[in-house]
Amino acid sequence: MSKNDVKLKRKDILRRRGLIVQIIRDFFHREGYLEVETPNRIPAPAPEFNIEAEPSGAWFLHTSPELCMKRLLAEGWDRIFQICKCYRRGERGRLHLPEFTLLEWYRTGIDYLDLMIECEKLIGFLATRLEYGPVLSYGSQTVDLTPPWERLTLQEAFDRYAPISLDVALERDTFEEVLVDWVEPHLGVNKPTFLYDYPVSHGALARVKRGNEKVVERFELYMAGIELANAFSELTDPEEQRKRFQAEEKKRRQFGKIPYPMPEKFLHSLGHISSAAGCALGIDRLVMLFTGAPEIGLCVTFAPEEL
Amino acid sequence: MHGVMCFMYEASDLRKGLRIKLDGEPHIITDFNFVKPGKGQALYRCKLKNLITGAQFDRTFRSVDVFEPADLQQKKMQYLYEEEGRYCFMDTETFEQVYLTAEQVGEARNFLVENLEVGVLFFGDKPLDITLPNAVDLVVTQADPWVKGDTVAGNTKPVTVETGYVLQVPSFIEQGDKIRVDTRTGEYLTRVKE
Questions:
Q1: Which end of chain A has fewer surrounding CB within 10 Å, N or C?
Q2: Can you give the pLDDT at residue A216?
Q3: What digits encode the pLDDT tens for the residues A69-80?
């Protein structure tokens, strides 16, 4: 392949990307959502141990628009969506960019199970408008997009694919290794997979599941082994949320990570949301899946190495 | 974690080609991949090569890991001679001599001529590797004679040079000629007029 071919391919990818974003906007407008823009530069990101915000002066660039969008829910908005750039320090790999584009949407009065259905509708709408059949090809894989998609709890997935159980993996602190090496390759292979019900330690802003206090109502959507979207029933109890943030922040400081101030205004607003669910979907990864791009850097105008 | 006085790399500094100290020995990262399941810990997956033993292996690091730089130094030295698979180099200022094995010298042996100045890479006082100049002049010790009239551009023939290395050269090169060879590709560059 000559250098020209690569350039040409990139051009096609970017052209399709523009179309994908346009179709997504169309979907949400039809469903009665309002498109919003929240500030990218914020004084206090959500304290999560594994997400590094990029400092910007004394403030930070947001790692997702989650806190501001939930404050909008507290102010009475019931269906909102946003497509924005987010920033996470030190993340660059086949599926990661330190600056990436998220689609994030929230709706009051629903839970994470309703969001699974909305994901099926969104991707189905996109595939139809892009004139795909019911089957998406990515690399050597073909994924049947006909709903309903596969729904698998994390526990079931570990029991089915991993050499050790979820509990043992968590206890030995090898959760990520086992998930990446043994479980993820099987997810979203024939049909997209919703992997759901995560341990409380892996969903700092998600609501605890009714009837099972060990897990939170969170899911990740996988297509062709690629983690595409993360969603949960929102935790709306300010005191519980404060405790979770404090635990994460304590761990952050213990390991010498940049300290984050407590997002007080966000915590205060939580009490004004009755119930809601929200989903974050990686646009760059969606473009990978719908263009066959093997690497996320090909799906943006310039990857960091090209700057 | 920052109780150490010297400069340390963090996991996010890891990349292909970086040299770090692991278990007290210098290693080079030969392949690198970043993976991170959503909300989970980042995994920095590396293929590493031990610069002393040559051993290659995989290792996964996490964001809380820190690394000492492999304290490597390069010295300019002169190549003296080879004896029973040991290659002798001398520091031209201190006259100190060090030996490298055939394995450490590797393909570079094809271009080592007496008194050649090379870079020798040290870990402490242990020599590990050599860096050649990009081009080296070598005398042709064996070549088929030039058939007069063979002037077709692009015609080549094999010759042997003083180190025993065999390479393709234009057909006008004769035994006793000095030629310049690119040490990175092993290919002929030009004839050197003296």
A1: C
A2: 97
A3: 999 999 999 999
CATH architecture of A3-306: 2-Layer Sandwich (3.30)
Q: What does DSSP assign to residue A24?
A: H
Question: Can you tell me the mean pLDDT for A27-54?
Answer: 96
Fold of B135-192: OB fold (Dihydrolipoamide Acetyltransferase, E2P) (2.40.50)
pLDDT at residue A256, as a whole number: 86
Q: Does the pLDDT of residue A6 top 80, yes or no?
A: no
- Could you give the C-alpha distances from B32 to A181, A301, B18, in angstroms and in order? 16, 24, 10
The confidence score (pLDDT) of residue B52 equals 87
C-alpha span between A198 and A210 (Å, rounded):
13
Record the tokens describing residue A84, joined without a space: 């924005």
- Residue B147 reports pLDDT greater than 80: no
Fold of B72-131: OB fold (Dihydrolipoamide Acetyltransferase, E2P) (2.40.50)
Best residue of A154, A176, A182, A193 to probe chain B, by most B CBs closer than 10 Å: A176
Interface of A with B (CB under 8 A): 48, 50-52, 89-96, 175-177, 179-180, 184, 198, 202-204, 220, 227, 230, 255-256
User: What's the rounded mean pLDDT across residues A2-15?
Assistant: 72
Supply the pTM of this predicted model: 0.81
